Amino acid sequence: MIWTVGTTLTILLYFVMLFFVVVLYPFDNKKRRFVHAQCFWWSDAVLALNPYWKIRVSGLENINKKKTYVVVSNHQSLADIVVIYQTKMQFKWVAKDDLFRVPVLGWELSLAKHIRLERGDFSSIKHVYRHAAEWLRCGMSVLFFPEGTRSETGAMRDFQNGAFKLAIKEKVPVLPIYLDGTGNAIPKGSWLFRKASCRLKVLPAIDTAKFKAADFAALKDIVRAQLEFAARE
Q1: Does 189 have pLDDT greater than 60?
Q2: Entry pTM
Q3: How high is the pLDDT of residue 154?
Q4: Predicted pLDDT at 122
Q5: By CB neighbour count within 10 A (0-12 exposed, 13-18 middle, 19+ buried), where does 159 fall?
Q6: Which of 41, 68, 154, 155 is 20 to 30 A from 20, comparing alpha carbons?
Q7: Mean pLDDT rounded to a whole number for the chain
Q8: Over residues 130-146, mean pLDDT
Q9: CATH number, domain at 135?
């Protein structure tokens, strides 16, 4: 029943997004802000109609809608996608090629102009960071999962360096987001919904203006420490 409701909402979302792509093409084709914003009601509906998930959201006051961020979050499951839209932020995901191949969901990622990463392809990685930099320069935040893949245990995996190098290079603040419980909501390797108490906490942004290019590891450690502290709260 839950999958039926979720699938129906996701298919509806696709057609709504497609409608606004066509109707607003002369006005919103570059950034697709209004198209992206359709995911907000979708997230609200999926969470409201799912009796198995309870979610707590905090720290939204740390988001300045007038600023551009490199958003960094830990990654536990597919449920992260639903939950992060509760921030009501404008951003572009960096998503693996596998997701773009999923019917309906992948089409929606393309319609919203999210960033496609082909796993194991070095040229694709270079393209991702070039594309991400272009978005940041035109005032669009970019969201990274620096672990690279979902955690199977809930414990954070090692962070990759790219998001932090990019934030320093573009002089854009890093906005850490901590997710908890989503790994239980849809466990890795499973498509089954389970009972879960999920938490999303937006942490204060970290200014990168004083960081030099060689300081990316220090920035990475600061962000990771803040996320680990949030995990203990």
Answers
A1: no
A2: 0.92
A3: 64
A4: 63
A5: buried
A6: 68
A7: 90
A8: 96
A9: 3.40.1130.10
Is the Cα torsion angle 84, 64, 233, 161 positive or negative in sign?
Answer: positive
- For the packed helices 33-48 and 2-23, what is the interaxial angle rounded to 10 degrees? 160
Give me the pLDDT at residue 151, please. 65
- How many structural domains are present in the chain? 1
Tokens, residue 195: 């009972």
Rg (CA), the chain: 17
Task: Dump the DSSP string for the chain.
Answer: -HHHHHHHHHHHHHHHHHHHHHHTHHHHTTT-HHHHHHHHHHHHHHHHT-TTEEEEEE-GGG--TTS--EEEE----THHHHHHGGG---EEEEEEHHHHTSTTHHHHHHHTTPEEE-TT-HHHHHHHHHHHHHHHHTT-EEEE-TTSS--SSSS--PPPSHHHHHHHHHT--EEEEEEESHHHHS-TT------EEEEEEEPPPB--TT--GGGHHHHHHHHHHHHHHHHH-
Averaged pLDDT, 150-167: 85
Domain boundaries, position 123: 2-232
- Please report which confidence band the pLDDT of residue 164 belongs to, taking 50, 70 and 90 as the band edges: very high
Q: What are the angstrom distances between the C-alpha of 189 and each of 74, 76, 150, 160, 178?
A: 17, 11, 10, 22, 22
Please give the structure tokens belonging to residue 118: 């082909």
Query: What does the alpha-carbon distance between residue 63 and residue 183 come to, in Å, rounded to a whole number?
Result: 24
